[in-house]
Amino acid sequence: MHLFKGMTIKNNELNISEVGVTKLREKYQTPLYVYDENLIEETCALFVDNFKSSNFKTEILYASKAFSCLEIYRVASKFGLGFDVVSFGEMYTAYKAGVDMSKVYFHGNNKTVEELEYALKLNVGTIVIDNDYEYEIVNKLAEKNNRYVDVLLRINTGIDAHTHEYIKTAKDDSKFGYSVYDENIFHLINNINQQENLNFKGFHSHIGSQIFEENSFFEAVRTVLEFSKNVQDRLNINITVLNLGGGFGVYYTAADKPFELGQFLQKYIEVVEEEQGNYDLNLEKVVIEPGRSLICNAGSTLYTIGGTKKTFAGREYIFVDGGMGDNPRYALYKAKYECTIANNMNGEATEEYTIAGKYCESGDILIKDIKLPKAQANDLLLVSSTGAYNYSMASNYNRLPKLPVVFVKNGEHRLVVKRETLDDLIKQDI
Ligand SMILES: Cc1ncc(COP(=O)(O)O)c(C=O)c1O
């Protein structure tokens, strides 16, 4: 398993930011999410330090869908980050964490009237409109509440980014946003812009997630800026804010080759500055919203191994005390992970195992075919890079309680989300 910054081996045991995994199990039990707070902080600082320009303001939003709890909003806020939220729950959590709500952008393709009203009540800074229906609702609510609301329109550049390549199509089937190739978009923009209670600022574009090809992002920037220029010329509307989304790829396994983030961010800015010059745009602010790249590698999941089993067909399983309820990503899209036997870091990897959870599904797999030292019952198994889209996608399948979250930092550890109890599981039942 790749050791991320902050991971060290002491007496054959994995330590994360100077905290041993055995100690973590003693104190919090397993299964358990563990986050290295130093790594989160360093990554926040890396984004802020490298995505800046003397031509326009920049803003980093943390895409809170990747991992949302009170403490992550507090930590990211210390670095001046804003937040992308997509629901009542994310808005509420950010608000309760004391976030500056003017730095919050409300996304989503089907925000409810209640959610939009709530966003106005909490003074959410920007609403990102997805479609005609939503525009009408936002406008009515703004009028009714006598409010002036900053809005962006989510556009679709037709850039279909795969992990190592991109293709540009004029046809886009995504449920998100409005295609820049659809003539009706000009009518919608004009309508939004004419409303007294809506301050139309510009566009939002997000081309996908876990993208490794820098050119996909640069090509999207070119398309967004060209389109912005087109809108300015045709409709005489100033485009001042662009939100370019997230999607920067990260390491899960050796097959992933992420670009060096700091260097990439500087190039990204240069491309925006260059295209801004080419298209003669007066941008005031350029925003990005990383989720995975900000949090994924900082998080790991610690499990206790129960039984091992060799099937008749020859596959050798390790069973752990969690599984698809805390990490549904293999079951969802065959996502790949690395792991280690965290109390036997120096052991020789002589066996080939499949790591399966305890849920009642044969698809409850975490990792297939990984080389590890021989596993014993009660060993600790740590899966790395589970910081994004694990806790936030967790379920109570089989009525298993959700896991706690612990932050570790320089030998200290603290609980930031408690383990669910059996009573929590029946709390809403009548
Ligand atoms: C609108 C939007 N912004 C940002 C993100 C964050 O993407 P990532 O976690 O890949 O950085 C997403 C996730 O898909 C998204 O839908």
CATH homologous group name of the largest domain? Alanine racemase
Helix content range:
25-40%
CATH architecture of the largest domain: Alpha-Beta Barrel
| Radius of gyration using CA atoms only | 23 Å
The N- and C-terminal alpha carbons lie at a distance of 46 Å
CATH classification, class level of the largest domain? Alpha Beta
State the domain count. Answer: 2
Main beta-sheet annotation: 9 strands, mixed
Q: Uncertain regions: pLDDT < 50 for 5+ in a row?
A: none
Q: What is the mean predicted local confidence, pLDDT?
A: 96
Q: List cofactors, ions and other ligands.
A: pyridoxal-5'-phosphate
User: Which secondary-structure class do the elements indicate?
Assistant: alpha/beta
Content of β-strand: 25-35%
The shape, in one word, is: globular
Count the strands?
Answer: 23
Helix tally? 12
- What's the CATH topology label of the largest domain? TIM Barrel
Structure, described:
With 430 residues, the chain is α/β, with parallel strands linked by helices. The protein has two domains: 7-37 and 297-426, Lyase, Ornithine Decarboxylase, Chain A, domain 1, CATH 2.40.37.10; 107-290, TIM Barrel (Alpha-Beta Barrel). Helices cover 30% and strands 26% of the residues. The strands form four sheets. Strands 4, 16, 17, 18, 19, 20, 21, 22 and 23 form a nine-stranded mixed β-sheet that branches. It has an eight-stranded parallel β-barrel with strand order 5-6-7-8-9-13-14-15, surrounded by four helices. A three-stranded antiparallel β-sheet has the order 1-2-3. Strand 5 (57-63), helix 3 and strand 6 form a beta-alpha-beta unit. Helix 5 packs across helix 6. The radius of gyration is 23 Å and the shape is globular. The two termini are 46 Å apart. The mean pLDDT is 96. Bound molecules: pyridoxal-5'-phosphate (PLP). Pyridoxal-5'-phosphate binds next to helix 10.
